[in-house]
Amino acid sequence: MLIESRPVTDPEIAALVVAQQRELREADGGLDGQVFMPHDDVRYLAVVVNGRAVACGGLQALDAETGEVKRMYVRPAYRGRGIARQLLAALEECAFRQGHSVVCLETGTYLPAAIALYTSGGYQQVPVYGEYVGNPYSVCSAKGLPVAA
Q: In this protein, which residues make up the domain named N-acetyltransferase (predicted)?
C-alpha cells in the first residue's frame, strides 16, 4: 500500500469522489442534494494498492491554523483493512506540515462508521460550521495537532 499526493484533476481521484458522492446520496436518502464542485485548493491523497487508487481524502486550508479533511472515501471492497485510519493519519501529517494546529471535518449522522473512526482517532464534536450550518444531518468534529518543537 502506498499513500501519495494527487492533483484534483487526477482521473482516479475524480472517479473516487464520484463514487463517494453517489454513496452519500444513497446513504442519506437523497436529502443532501449537494453536488461535488472541485476546489483547486484541496490537496488530495490517494491510497494505491496494486497500482490502483482505492481510497482518497483531501485537505483544504480554512485559515492559517485550521485544515479541513474533505471527501474521505474507501472503495467498499477495501474497507475493514485500516486504510481509512492510515489515510486520516497521513492527512493530519499534511496539515501539520502546512502549519495547521487544528484539523476539522464534517460527516453525516447517517454514517456511524465514519463517526466512530473520527471519534476513535481523537476527534471531538464541535458546533456545525461554515457551509454545514443549517444541515440537520451534519456532524462536525475537530482535533488539535501537536505543536512543532
A: 3-146
- HSE (CB half, 13 Å, CA atoms) of 2? 9
Q: Enumerate the domain spans of the chain.
A: 2-144
Give the dihedral of Cα atoms 50, 54, 57, 58; nearest 10 deg. 70
Residue pLDDT, tens place only, 56-115: 999 999 999 999 999 999 999 999 999 999 999 999 999 999 999 999 999 999 999 999
Q: What is the pTM of this model?
A: 0.90
Q: Which residues contact 89 (CB under 8 A, 6 or more apart)?
A: 121
Q: Which pLDDT score is estimated for 75?
A: 97
Q: Domain spanning 2-144: which CATH class is it, in words?
A: alpha beta
The Cα–Cα gap between 94 and 4 comes to: 11
